[in-house]
Design brief:
Elements (H helix, E strand, L loop, with lengths): L14 H14 L5 E2 L11 H12 L12 H15 L8 E4 L2 H12 L5 E6 L4 H8 L3 E6 L10 H7 L4 E7 L11 H12 L5 E5 L15 H4 L7 E6 L12 E4 L2 H12 L7 H12 L3 H21 L15 E5 L17 H12 L1 E2 L1 E2 L8 E5 L4 H16 L3
Parallel strand pairs: 1-10, 3-4, 3-5, 5-6, 6-7
Antiparallel strand pairs: 2-8, 7-8, 9-12, 11-12
Helix pairs in contact: 2-10, 3-10, 4-5, 4-9, 11-13, 12-13
Length: about 400
């Protein structure tokens, strides 16, 4: 007898969390491991945000809020969308949840019927396919090649759409690739989507502020306003404001969809933490200088990692346009043999080799739907990155 529902047989734990836990287990044994598995800024949350949370707690803001978000939080989200994205949303078109991940889960929970298809552009965020599977949907993976900048094209999108297609999920800048869509590229996708009026669009824009080389961010909602009535924009404060542990994400979209998502939340987690919501108001409406400082540091680290990785024979890394990851092509070492006589047959073998021999924790490209690659998080110090990539270089040099 099994206690678990049948659907759990097709759902796996988060690969990035699993890698990080494996690294922590080695550290607990006294082994020095560079954990580059999790995407988490190493900066402290800005002081004015912490102070806002402190004052909220002192003033008694410690009770339930409205399920979909306190009025002040929704107002701050609406102001952010207007100020930064040129988008106008009413309070009933906004929902606040326990992280952007819960926003996505609630959206799929509220809309998916058994067999509905969810189109995913690979490489994708690891949780997208498993969320769809857990809720009865069918992930439809579209491989977006390195030659195409890891981006969906109108042709590949059109080929993936069927009468069962319910959602298209986009992520920009992309995790793990750092890919960024231009306004023209989004408009071209929008033309394809316009011919399929029952297909919903989820644009995950959580890395919006981590953009490099002077690029300007373009929200899908701004590029394709004619698709507003079926577009959900997902964002949050975790990445831009170094607030991963505060667990606040938000979504904006059609009132009918937002109402359904809020109902799902009312029967699961109720409201997001009231104190974290107060901190979110301070983050979105307060000083933004530290966001720019964080972005500059991530760009410097990006440049460092690109330089160091491309100096390793057998590994290749294109310059990511955003986010804080390195999605490294390891085709050049597939088929090589370790000093222990093990042949690297895929990118999962490569990441196990790196953990065993280099003591560097990385996530295989298979977790993101596109191989042979592996992902390193660059959201850590220059010193840690230099040391980790030096270890990788030394380990790769031992392959034959």
């Amino acid at each position: 007898m099994t206690m678990l529902a049948k659907r759990m047989a097709v759902v796996k734990p988060s690969p990035s969390m699993a890698v990080s836990q494996a690294a922590k287990a080695l550290v607990a044994q006294g082994i020095d491991v560079a954990d580059l598995g999790l995407g988490e800024p190493d900066f402290d949350t800005p002081a004015h945000i912490i102070e806002a949370a402190h004052q909220a707690a002192l003033s008694g803001d410690t009770r339930y809020t409205a399920t979909g978000g306190a009025p002040a939080t929704k107002a701050a989200v609406a102001e952010k969308f207007q100020r930064e994205n040129g988008l106008t949303f009413a309070a009933d078109e906004i929902v606040v949840a326990n992280g952007a991940k819960q926003i996505i889960f609630n959206a799929l929970m509220a809309t998916l019927e058994a067999g509905d298809e969810v189109i995913l552009a690979a490489p994708y965020f690891v949780s997208y396919p498993d969320m769809a599977l857990m809720l009865g949907g069918t992930p439809v993976v579209v491989e977006c090649s390195r030659a195409d900048g890891f981006k969906l094209t109108p042709a590949t999108l059109s080929a993936a759409i069927t009468p069962k297609s319910k959602w298209l999920i986009l992520n920009m800048p992309g995790n793990p690739s750092g890919a960024v869509y231009s306004r023209d590229e989004l408009k071209a996708l929008g033309k394809v989507l316009a011919a399929h009026p029952d297909l919903l669009i989820l644009s995950d824009e959580i890395y919006e502020h981590i953009l490099f080389d002077g690029l300007d961010f373009v929200s899908f909602g701004n590029a394709c306003p004619d698709l507003r009535n079926r577009t959900l924009i997902v964002n949050g404060v975790a990445k831009a404001y170094a607030m991963t542990g505060w667990r606040i994400g938000y979504g904006a979209g059609p009132a009918e969809l937002i109402k359904g998502m809020t109902t799902v939340q009312s029967q699961s987690t109720t409201n997001a933490c009231s104190i974290a919501q107060a901190a979110t108001v301070a983050a979105l409406t307060g000083p933004q200088e530290e966001v720019a400082q964080f972005r500059a540091a991530f760009e410097r680290r990006r440049d460092l990692v690109v330089q160091l990785v491309n100096a390793i024979d057998g590994l290749e890394l294109d310059r990511p346009d955003g986010a804080f990851y390195a999605y490294i092509d390891c085709a050049g070492i597939i088929g090589k043999t370790t000093t222990d006589g093990l042949t690297l047959t895929n990118d999962a073998d490569v990441t196990q080799f790196l953990l065993d021999q280099a003591r560097v924790a990385a996530v295989p490209g298979s977790a993101y739907g596109l191989s042979p690659f592996f992902r390193l998080s660059t959201a850590t110090s220059d010193e840690v990155l230099r040391a980790a990539i030096s270890r990788i270089r030394n380990a790769v040099a031992t392959l034959r």
